[in-house]
């Protein structure tokens, strides 16, 4: 029979994403509401190994729901990938009287939690916090909505100056393996073309599309390029290629980079994080373990971590079609 | 047998909402892509009655995806509620060679379209554009996401000054019949209490909650009040009541009003509108009529208008619970 | 001979304004740079009387430059207006070894400091922090630039929906005695008419102007009304009056209220606050007292508090003229 | 005796900047107010040569005050640098009955205007529109305030993620010849170090400063680098250098690029542009020519173009000192 859970730890791990603080706050406040003890673990699994813990109460998380980043810090931790590292972490948890933990992060963080659970039969629960929105078992990850708004707002600004000068812009956005940010922000920003890792449309099609766009009288063109796109050229090489093969355009490049991870979370991300935090704590108290919390439409669901970490959510084919139609 | 559809009209009707322009753009571009003619109708049903039409092509909707409001204007139209008014409107459509129309709006606009369809067997399709998110048949209406972000951003600002002065704020947000904006923005903004039309928690509970909040050491309190809340006092009366019964607080009121309807649409609203516009045109071409386009999770669905207009979407009970837990 | 200054206190007093935190940070860091001790006083003069002090070092003010409100809290304090209250405050300062203080606030706060200085020969220095921009001796007060941007952003949103419905909006902004916010934000937002405390243009002129605006084909009208305007009607009475005398308009009202005091400070306010904090500390160390720091063009200047508190800065006549021309 | 001016042309030239539309609107409305004819010239001097003109009235500039970019488009034009090109331009102006023009742009644009004036005795007036704020004869250029706010907002976002990971960021901002953007945005964003073209602090000092910052317990470091900084390494080389010589940091780079030119103008830029437009038209009507409009404190002033184009405004030494103190 499972041990009763009286103290829950919460940590953030891997790359940070906007809304992580709202999720931390939710875990802490749900514990307070249910009269369970709660401790924060700083700097992800590294802090777990080092015992960098701090008791939390409802007031510890005042005024953080609207802050980007994570007040618990995050870090990637090689040591936790070793049995010795995990042993140390387990010792620290036992010493601190922790009965279960909630980890907010992505696939790598969940994999660590799953192995830890398997080794020590220690209750764990995952909350998907990543801007990439690529995790199986949820329609939305915490931070994605904020990231696509950040991208769209920047492209709106670039469009101002692009239109004033009849320019073509290649804009690189995050997404090494998946094109969710590129596709959604591209449709939202009215991009003329969107290059994602899931498709290789080829350079010929790109040139054709740009020619058509120019001919149709558009005063500027924006091409969104996901980091991991498969066209075989990075965004600077694309600029050179197009300037050589399509000299009608004055081409510029913008690499958006890390600003996409920051910023005050949107209302959507704050609400999503608040809901997931409640669900994570309640699921642990119901004796569930080794799951990730997700959302489907308006329902919170649980997916075994073993399934959640199998690859990436595919991009929406229907949205690719919408994107094609919109660039008519 | 249904007449082949060669020309589609698009109009916005009722209160405007951010993202309507993205929906107009999508209808127009989908027509262009499918090589169907498209005409815009200005000023809603009033413009339909008066024949205020304009042919649209793909370039007519350049640079509007990021603009709030509606380039087609909107208006409430009493004449369309009469058989004579609708007869005039039908004559204008026939004269202009229009075979079907897409109306972007709320329940009132859909009811008009349904009656029109019943009277003239004229193909119609609805797209839900309202900030209230209360329309049956869709998880999200166009404009809701932008509105809750506007509210949350304003409350973030008010929180700054409230915290600096240990103040209590009553903030009135839109929602005459439904509390979706209040509940979501309230959870997103970390409000201490949320008053919605669907619940009457009573004044006693409000006082208790505020006393508890003060005692727990919070430096400020924000209470969100939906316009149509059932507590029996408007937001200014609430201020007086609390100042009389709970003199520990310095109380202020803020009525957010029409700013909630405006602003550049969020990425979510732009993408949603783009998808719905494609679906609306394609459904008409497939011979569907008298439906409203909606979204469930990531799937676009059709609901008969006769069902969509039956009342309002209830608020999410689970989210009310999350709200209670978060204010611990 | 003046006593050498080795420890400086900093407080915020009166209404808060965005950028106060940047000014606090600047005072604290300048002390650290010059190897002077620094203490914070919480809750304005009330905290001074109660000895609510905290030692500060350069790290105490990390990550506050971009936050609205004031981390030191603010309060209005009646007791400091009495000789007994000021005596208590002086005792607390002496007990804590404080040799001088910098007060960030408005006229009321400076008056208190001046009286205190006169009574105890205690070195004081003022930094103008108020959104009203009405303090003699400086072209800009900390918070004004943020406030006018907040107002303009909200009006941009309201304009969206006003244009979609051909509406007239009366928008009340802060400014009981002065029209700086109304005039600057009104010009910035392209308002059709601006009503300020310094002028009474009369209701007739307002009606004429609105008629002309309607006739000229504008799709919406925005009238900015400062709280203290002299037209003899509040913003709701104005609505009734115009609806009665000019029935061609659908009129709406929006009272912006306290959101104008909050929000992340603009770059201008952050830089201004940073510069003023340095100047305040350096002036005290040079033996200056009873001055307020101000800015003229790009030069920091000192004005005796006795002059700074004499009335309000008048509005710029040339800008009123620009406003008239812009509404052609 | 000077010819009476009955028709004024307005154009934007060179790189665009936010607020140019507000300046265009102001020139057009001032002409309308003073009952002078006004024509717009599209695409800068290129459009002048090609006669790409359009008559403007007060309504032509509705709803543009809040838009980034320039509705008149801009372009760099080599042909205008030749006597033949200018001759063509003059012929077009004469043919269109234009008596004077206002050019909104930077040094290059003003030089062209001055030469044109010298050759044809044609009245010209300059309005400084550039984000660089480097033009002699004015404390502020149109667009600078918006640009520094854009930079600060982005750095606020990057700070979120930098703090969560204890990272060092090199952020490149615009400024090939001058450090105004870097210095102001750097102070506003609380940057730990600011590298500008006007100073070469040397790599040693940079390393020392970063070591000190790390030691003092800061959770992240932001270094702002102006494009034209003189440290002898670009931003990517700096990253490599620091990673090699200071392995305690995980370093990232962000090049902000063209987003700095776009975006809705701030209230400051809109008001400044409105005032300068009025002044430009009135100065022409008073018989002034070959001047640039500028602002000193709150006064609009005129500077002969021949002086305005002599080099760049130096950065404020006092602000460099503030910047040093703030990074204590």
TrEMBL record, chains A, B, C, D:
Family: Belongs to the phosphofructokinase type A (PFKA) family. ATP-dependent PFK group I subfamily. Prokaryotic clade 'B1' sub-subfamily.
Pfam families (alphabetical): PFK
Cofactor field: Mg(2+)
Domain Phosphofructokinase: 7-284
The protein's name: ATP-dependent 6-phosphofructokinase
InterPro entries the UniProt entry points to: ATP_PFK (IPR022953), ATP_PFK_prok-type (IPR012003), PFKA_ATP_prok (IPR012828), Phosphofructokinase_CS (IPR015912), Phosphofructokinase_dom (IPR000023), PKF_sf (IPR035966)
Enzyme class: transferase
EC number: 2.7.1.11
This protein's record includes keyword Lipoprotein: no
Organism: Aureicoccus marinus
């Amino acid at each position: 029979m499972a041990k009763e859970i009286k103290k829950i730890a919460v940590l953030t791990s891997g790359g940070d994403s906007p809304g992580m603080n709202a999720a931390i706050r939710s875990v802490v406040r749900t514990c307070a509401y249910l009269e369970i003890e709660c401790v924060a673990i700083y700097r992800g699994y590294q802090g777990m190994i080092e015992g960098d813990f701090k008791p939390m109460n409802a007031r510890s998380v005042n005024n953080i729901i609207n802050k980007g980043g994570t007040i618990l810090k995050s870090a990637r931790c090689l040591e936790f990938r070793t049995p010795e590292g995990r042993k140390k972490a387990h010792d620290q948890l036992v010493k601190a009287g922790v009965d279960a933990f909630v980890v907010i992060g992505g696939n790598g963080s969940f994999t660590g939690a799953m192995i830890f659970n398997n080794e020590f039969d220690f209750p764990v629960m995952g909350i998907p916090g990543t801007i990439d929105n690529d995790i199986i078992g949820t329609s939305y990850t915490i931070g994605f909505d904020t990231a696509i708004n950040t991208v769209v707002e920047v492209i709106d600004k670039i469009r101002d100056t692009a239109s004033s000068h009849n320019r073509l812009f290649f804009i690189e956005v995050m997404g090494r393996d998946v094109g969710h940010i590129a596709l959604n922000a591209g449709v939202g920003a009215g991009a003329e073309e969107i290059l994602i890792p899931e498709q290789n449309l080829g350079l010929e099609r790109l040139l054709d599309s740009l020619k058509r766009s120019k001919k149709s009288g558009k005063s500027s063109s924006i091409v969104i390029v996901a980091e991991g796109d498969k066209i075989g050229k990075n965004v600077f090489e694309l600029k050179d290629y197009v300037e050589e093969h399509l000299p009608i355009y004055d081409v510029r490049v913008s690499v958006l980079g890390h600003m996409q991870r920051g910023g005050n979370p949107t209302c959507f991300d704050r609400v999503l994080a608040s809901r997931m935090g409640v669900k994570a704590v309640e699921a642990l108290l119901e004796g569930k373990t080794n799951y990730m919390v997700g959302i489907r439409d308006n329902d919170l669901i649980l997916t075994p971590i073993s399934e959640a970490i199998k690859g990436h959510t595919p991009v929406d084919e229907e949205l690719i079609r919408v994107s094609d139609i919109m660039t008519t």
